Amino acid sequence: MRHSSTSADSVYPRPLEAYGWSPELDGQFTSVADASWVPGRVIRVDRGRCDVVIADGDSEVTVVHADTGPVADPDPMKMPCTGDWVAVQAGAAGTYVQALLPRRTAMVRSSASQRSEGQVLAANIDTIGVVVALDTEPDLGRIERFLALAWESGAQPVMVLTKSDLAQDADGVRETVEQASPGVDVLVVSATTDDGMDVLAAVLAGTSVLVGQSGAGKSTIANVLMGRSVMETQQTRGDGKGRHTTTTRELMPLPGGGVLIDTPGIRGVGLYDAADGLQQTFSEIEQLAEDCRFRDCEHVAEPGCAVREAIEDGMLQQRRLDSYHKLLRENQWIASRSDARLRQDRLKALKTQGKEGMANMIAKRG
Prior knowledge:
By secondary structure, the chain is α/β, with parallel strands linked by helices. The chain has helices at 24-32, 140-153, 170-179, 197-203, 218-226, 275-281, 283-289, 306-312, 318-352, 356-365; strands at 38-46, 49-56, 60-67, 85-91, 94-100, 106-110, 118-123, 127-133, 156-162, 185-188, 207-211, 250-253, 259-262.
């Protein structure tokens, strides 16, 4: 059954507007969907099943629990994720996710597996709030990692410095973070006193996701933005490390419009194919490098290096360059491992298909 529409052959489900549906998604849905399928958005994923919000008539929505078996894939990047738009089929035999619509944006990190795979943290997002608590000294290297993933996603990152009521020098920390976040708004907020929360609410447009370590205050912020307690919170441990409260990524509509995805605390922030994200995270180094004498300058000891000159003049911190080099090496290593894995998977697939000759020829080429 089709939902309310803008034309006779449109599937545009107006109740899903609050979750981000737009007329542009109409064409994507009709290109993959069967007549008995309905569009929906994944709001939560859990072990082969997911909660999907779909239109229920012309003005209401309902949440269905759907099996993801029909779209199961050994590549975790191709599995449904919170924020995905999907085609759902409901019947007497059960409710199933039958297809995924193309992702507009996606925040991806390297998975914890040994296969150099990517893990999608959130899909179809517009704004990524990197949440950092001010009750401890910020880890600038970790911030740069988060920003590289955020920029690579295609969404707009924003730094959210929380717990300003517990900070001794919030303005000083903000200035330090701003130096590590070129081109990114840095907001100082307190969910306890509401300081800066109105500005944050205005910045989080469209579909937003909050990411950061456990104990940074993501769930507390989510509760304030929602205007009610929807996420469980806990006190930070005595050693300054956070406790895991949020255990899954969950998408929620905001009272003032848009939707918010709260995520579990992230300890490992592994890069995954984030070359463009690194260029934007370290945009001032990339810009300086254009004036280096050699185009392949590595900014170590080459003559005429504009980056080294900026460090000597005090315009660029050595820490920034060291972090830049470190993350570039890591990204290149992950990329090489990913290429090798894809090559092995292709060879295995060819052999399974009985194409031994082609597989051997590719293997000899290296």
